[in-house]
Amino acid sequence: MATVTVAKRVAEECNVELGQKVGYSIRFEDMTSTSTRIKYMTDGLLLKEALLDPKLSRYSVIVVDEAHERTVQTDVLLGLLKDVQKKRSQSSNEVRKLNLLKLIIMSASLDARGFSEYFGGAKAVHVMGRQFPVDILYTAQPETDCLDAALVTIFQIHMEEGPGDLLLFLSGQEEIESIEGLVHENLKKLPEANQKLLIYQLFSSLPSEKQMKVFTPAPAGFRKSNTCGVIPATNIAETSVTIPGVKYVIDPGLVKVRGYSPDSGIESLIIVKTSKAQALQRSGCAGREGPGKCYRLYPESRFEGLDDSTVPEIKRCNLSNVILQLSALGVDDIIGLKQN
Question: How far apart are CA 285 and CA 287, in angstroms?
Answer without folding.
Answer: 6
